[in-house]
């Protein structure tokens, strides 16, 4: 029994903290950690793809050769050779990115927080896709914006909608490659139109691209960053091509914005671990990703195919789903009367998990949607899990 | 020559971002990185104290034995065994700290940012010491508080002042051991009085303690956390006892606050690197710090003595300074007419650097103060640098 302490405080949280809630999805994810659960709920990459040996060698080398630098405080904008590597790797399609435009961050999520800090005031209008990445909605929410959901279709965000909705907005957040949660990809034509519209509206266009390298069927499409480096804020990450647990990503933006974000980052966490940046530079500098990424693509592509085949076999014809050309997610839309939050309760009882779609909507949720990840589950288990879900859905028709 | 891009944006930054400034101190620190400069300006621990070999062995062991876990996404509140280690190490003087009260953060600076996020609204009254740690002022500033500077004397913060100033405030930020920037320590009596006053006012009391283990002359004084775990928010760090470049600290607080901070952290950077936490746990779990910390104390204590002796020899009698019993800093007060920002310009021309005191004041700055760090400079260089400063000051009398 807890003894009441008369000195215990009554908390007065900030308004933004009062709006914070325990994420329903996080609670789900805790359940899905149990080994008996077939979980399509995670947003985690497959640990089978982690280059543990290469990391081990790199940690040893960096600590041996440059231990005192690696373990000391470092610059807020990041480890210069890695910033240069990022700049070079993004200097494609005729555009030159300079390392001055690169800010290293403690995972992309921190990039979102810093963007919110420097671009969003209470009540600022900001545009997001319908649906959008939940982590971005959470990060931006802390700064109290008015979210405007831009309509989408199977080709992703519809640029012409931005022309009317975007006036006076502070930013547009987009995820053009294999979007989280839908798996959708924007065409080159749409990208170019969107870049032009945003430039005309003086609207900062955020291109979040954690999955861009994980293209299954063809070469990745051109980045909006390269279409207009002076108007696009590009976000990249080592989480999906190397490992997520090291927390390392980057934001590439015009220098005026990088300056502000660097000042905000200094107040937020001083800098991202120097050792981690030096180790990642050591791992990637000689082209390791060129041979490593294809192995990830192959694994995920095979499992994506297995899930698409299982959906065709086991899901009723009244359900529809996306056919991603890369990334980690498939988005399913069920008949309107089915609430996937309730479906999840039933699924968990049968040891299958997914993420209900509602939390991914900034405004009106579509409660008949759900997100499936195929990357951490082997094909046989994918079929087993999708069959169980299919039966649960069929029982509701 | 840069070609103007007609698509370049005109930026509309948030109000908080417009108030952000490039830190004068950061610009100073860039200059002081030059090898010919004797720098008392840094807040960096001495790299001579970094346990590089122990870290290397631990990285190798963790990656070999638990690589897939260490490199995967991890829980937002932190690596459980390390949280438990922190809780146990703070369960002293009869109070029991539970691991549920521990949130791992990406360096103490992130703890400050998260506290600002969940406790400060625009215009909230918050109390800080006079002067206070600059990084805390920067972190809190982003959330737009009204700072109230609590008067201090040679014994640090004066608790009775809090009784009148603290009504309706959201938090009191204190650094009771070898404060940054003054090096001052609060007595046990003051700590107990402060804890009682804050409890009576329902005022959350932040006890920032990065230097607590670095006590030169005696055992560390009791922590305010242990005097009232239900009313004190304790902040600890591995930066000064292990290495800062890994960015690892912790906040210990009542569970209601930890819950809110955990939700805020999820939106801010998901979690702190799992690998780093596992490695630090591996390094510290069997008592390494018990033998390691005394070596840091000895080094810093010797250099502190060298600086105090040099100050007595070379500084004019109209200057006064603190005599720290631990930590990294000495605080100097010069005659009122001397502006240490201007003094710094002259000192840098003679290859000596320090940090002017003005930026450490939340309200009225005392421009005749300065902060000296003695931890990264060997004794002979300390004497040389202090002699140069002494002459520059003497010339102004």
UniProtKB/TrEMBL annotation, chains A, B:
GO terms for biological process: alpha-amino acid metabolic process. It holds the Pfam family Aminotran_1_2. Signal peptide: none annotated. The keyword Signal does not apply. Its EC number is 2.6.1.-. It is an enzyme of class 2 (transferase). Its cofactor is pyridoxal 5'-phosphate. One of its GO terms (molecular function) is pyridoxal phosphate binding. It comes from the Bacteria. Belongs to the class-I pyridoxal-phosphate-dependent aminotransferase family. This is 2-aminoadipate transaminase. It comes from Glaciimonas immobilis. The lineage of its organism: Bacteria, Pseudomonadati, Pseudomonadota, Betaproteobacteria, Burkholderiales.
